[in-house]
Specification:
Helix content: over 70%
Strand content: under 5%
Oligomer: single chain
Largest sheet: none
Number of domains: 2
Number of strands: 0
Length: 162
């Protein structure tokens, strides 16, 4: 936490003083360098996915893509639960839209197989994204409940323990 605080305050100080010396001191620390490098990598990968979907004119949710990127890299635990809930809701909406689009294409009088194939691909991707977010959110909630039970069982009765 202190390294992250150091990076943030160093960046602010460097920007205010029009100098870069304090940022350089922080980045010389190997742990801080790793954190900064990985953080930038995660953000770039998430932005790359968002931009790619915008270019392809696909329905997408930046929140759900960024959340899924962080989860797949093993750092999903840094996301606040409110962000996860919003990302999951957006992913569920994208999945239902993709499913509806596929059903609509399949029910045409003369279905176009290329459009159906593309819609199936988009639907599978949306379903996988939604499944990842739901699984992660469920896991986080389960861990919170189990930790809460464990803590409560170890508290004295005066403080709400069992």
């Amino acid at each position: 936490m202190s390294i992250t605080w150091g990076i943030a305050t160093g960046a602010a100080e460097g920007a205010i003083n029009n100098g870069i010396s304090s940022i350089l001191k922080i980045v010389k620390n190997p742990v801080a360098k790793f954190i900064a490098k990985e953080g930038i990598g995660f953000l770039l990968e998430g932005l790359e996915n968002v931009v790619g979907r915008i270019i392809n004119k696909e329905d997408m949710s930046a929140k759900s893509i960024i959340a899924e990127t962080l989860i797949s890299k093993g750092v999903g635990h840094i996301l606040p639960s409110s962000y996860l809930k919003k990302a999951t809701a957006e992913a569920r909406h994208n999945y239902s839209v993709a499913l509806h689009k596929l059903e609509k294409l399949q029910s045409r009088r003369t279905p176009n197989m290329k459009l159906i194939r593309n819609a199936k691909s988009a639907m599978r991707e949306a379903r996988a994204l939604y499944g990842t977010l739901v699984s992660f959110t469920t896991g986080v909630e389960t861990v919170k409940k189990e930790v809460g039970k464990k803590v409560q069982s170890q508290l004295p009765k005066d403080y709400g323990g069992q």
